[in-house]
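Hi R.,

Here's the chain you asked about this morning:
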Amino acid sequence: MAWDLIYWLLCFCIDIALFASSLYQYVMLTDLEADYINPFELSTRINQLVVPEFIVHGVFCALFLLAQRWFMFLFTVPLTYYIVMLFVKQKHLIDVTEVFRVLNTEKKCRLVKLGVYFCLLAIIIIRILISAIFVPWSRSEELDIRASFLEF
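And here is the predicted structure, written out as tokens:
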């Protein structure tokens, strides 16, 4: 039962890192729109984060698959598919010369990512609470049934 709590704490840390990365990218795009940052600086900063974010998200999705958390895995698969398609089509990096043309699209993409990571964060916090509170105190099978019923 302690492994379950450690697993969800690891997922929490990964999700916070992905959420912070997407939020940083969104703020940088908003700063470009308000003319607080130049396009070269923006593309340099965001392009440094894109590939590591893709790798961490792939590990995050694989972690759900290997742990057989089917709901969480299926929740992350569409975003993983989108990330893979961007990478295959080589549209994952922001071009300095095209940045103003794709600014609104990139902002919407980051907002969708923020929404997905926020929903995952809420579910993960619920699972942490279930693992931390209900499971260690269960002496009877009654609480285990409730905990497994709430498992996603």
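One quick note: The chain has five helices and no strands.

Cheers,
M.
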